[in-house]
Specification:
By secondary structure, the protein is an alpha+beta fold. 21% of the residues lie in helices and 31% in strands. It is built from 9 helices and 25 strands. The protein has helices spanning 20-26, 55-65, 69-92, 118-127, 139-154, 158-161, 312-315, 411-420, 431-437; strands at residues 6-8, 31-32, 97-102, 108-112, 131-134, 164-170, 175-180, 196-198, 229-234, 237-242, 246-248, 254-258, 276-281, 284-297, 301-307, 319-320, 328-329, 332-333, 341-346, 350-365, 368-376, 388-391, 394-402, 426-430, 442-443. The strands form 5 sheets. An 8-stranded antiparallel sheet has the order 10-9-13-14-15-12-11-25, with no helix packed on it. Strands 19-20-21-24-23-22 form a 6-stranded antiparallel barrel, surrounded by 4 helices. A hairpin with a 5-residue loop joins strand 3 and strand 4. The longest helix has 24 residues, at 69-92. The protein is globular.
Length: 446
């Protein structure tokens, strides 16, 4: 089955103030990548002094992020601390708070706009151990500009509206960013021309696979970890995805949470004809391990897979791995923060790492808008869909779509990114949002 490709990605921030939005916007066109994920425990343990990370993940951290495993864990911890601070600051100083992120050295930055209470806000930032940065606009003002742009767009002729692929808040540059198909379009006066990114639509790609049946002696008695491959089957339709985080629902049943688009027949879910989920034995379909219980594909992209009783033990673990690799044990759940380090696991491309460069962004995927996503400069290919993203050892997201899904291997787009600055982008569904949507759902943790 062909999966629709995203027409647009909305970047809101990144690591380098000038190149970030361009990079995230280039990711704009993406293809669904497919996969599962599970829910959460909200504890955020202290960063360990000695990282207990598998060799394959350490290799990805040093190769992709060019930092030590200790720095990776420390930055992930700092990002969650500033995220907690930002939630309070946004509530207490709505006309002053201008956003928060980690800079390229891993320092937490909190932006402050002028206004009554700015000195009090600055002291709170400094007392928390973060760096205050003066900006001209609050996040509330930027959100108002984004909303005004979207309202303006509704009244434009088709020649203009069809050439505009999205708008996002660009936290690092304290502005909104607009992605367009061609230059010199008429735009509202409050749009900074420097934040208009011209990018033609990339080719459309797809990912559907016929997964043959394995031998009857195949079994899934081994532990099934996030990142392992699975097949979803509905009649003659089948997709190959990556498992996400293991978890439990409100009734204590064992589940796995995957991407919504990994379900080949959402209309039949839930019900007696809901698509089945099979383990993979090599490239062949092994035993049925579960069935789709819920799938959401619209503003969000996730599914909850109910695990069959005979495979409960196999899924009763907090592990993230790639096939044949040692696992990472999940210790909690995180929220995406611009600048935070993040690593994904996928059955096709393994471990790879990057940095969150946009949150609360909108991405056009086929005829629908994915509005509650975040993105990171990570390559992912079909088959990685639904796999887990972690920051430190915390569950962060579900792989949903990739800007480079048409490439056969990641080395090609990664090299192009080094030359042009247009790095691959992975769009993901935040785990925290899935948990909020499903009371009682939790990610299995250590």
């Amino acid at each position: 089955m062909l999966l629709p490709r995203m027409r647009f990605s909305m970047p809101a921030a990144g690591r380098r103030p000038r190149s970030l939005v361009r990079t995230a916007a280039i990711a704009a066109t993406t293809v669904l990548v497919a996969g599962p994920l599970a829910a959460s425990a909200h504890a955020e343990p202290a960063t360990p002094a000695t990282p207990d990370l598998p060799a394959q993940l350490v290799a990805a951290i040093t190769r992709d992020l060019k930092i030590s495993p200790q720095d990776y864990l420390q930055r992930a911890d700092t990002a969650q601390k500033v995220a907690t601070f930002a939630t309070t600051a946004q509530r207490q100083f709505p006309d002053i708070f201008g956003g928060a992120w980690l800079d390229e050295n891993g320092k937490a930055i909190v932006a402050l706009a002028p206004g009554d209470g700015v000195d009090q806000a600055r002291k709170a930032v400094q007392d928390a151990g973060f760096v205050a940065k003066d900006v001209s606009k609050s996040e509330t003002t930027l959100r108002g500009e984004k909303n005004a742009f979207q309202q303006w767009l509704k009244d434009q002729p088709e020649s203009v509206s069809k050439a505009i692929r999205g708008v996002a808040i660009d936290t690092l540059n304290n502005s909104i960013a607009v992605r367009v198909d061609k230059p010199d379009l008429p735009l509202p006066g409050f749009v900074d021309p420097a934040r208009v990114i011209v990018m033609t639509a990339p080719p459309v790609g797809g990912e559907g696979q016929d997964v043959p049946q394995a031998s009857d002696i195949a079994s899934a008695g081994h532990a099934m970890a996030a990142g392992d491959a699975y097949a979803s089957v509905a009649g003659r339709m089948s997709l190959r995805c990556s498992l996400g985080f293991n978890g439990t629902d409100g009734n204590g049943n064992v589940v796995n949470i995957t991407a919504g688009h990994c379900n080949p027949n959402i209309a039949a879910t839930p019900g007696a004809n809901a698509p089945a989920v099979y383990s993979l034995v090599g490239d062949s379909r092994g035993p049925q391990v579960g069935v789709f219980q819920k799938s959401v594909l619209g503003n969000e992209d996730y599914s909850i897979i109910g695990i069959n009783d005979q495979f409960r033990d196999a899924f009763s673990n907090p592990m993230v791995a790639v096939p044949g690799a040692a696992p990472v044990n999940v210790t909690g759940v995180a929220v995406p923060v611009v600048g935070a380090p993040v690593c994904k696991s996928g059955a096709r491309t393994g471990f790879s790492c990057g940095v969150v460069n946009a949150v609360d962004q909108t991405v056009q995927v086929g005829d629908r808008m994915l509005t509650q996503s975040f993105s990171a400069n990570i390559c992912a290919l079909p088959g990685d869909s639904g796999g887990p993203l972690v920051t430190g050892t915390l569950a962060l997201g579900i792989s949903s779509a990739s800007s480079v899904a048409d490439y056969p291997i990641c080395e090609i787009p990664n090299l192009i990114g080094l030359i042009t600055g247009n790095t691959p982008q992975l769009f993901a569904q935040p785990v925290s949002t899935v948990l909020s949507d499903n009371p009682g759902l939790s990610v299995r943790t250590m």
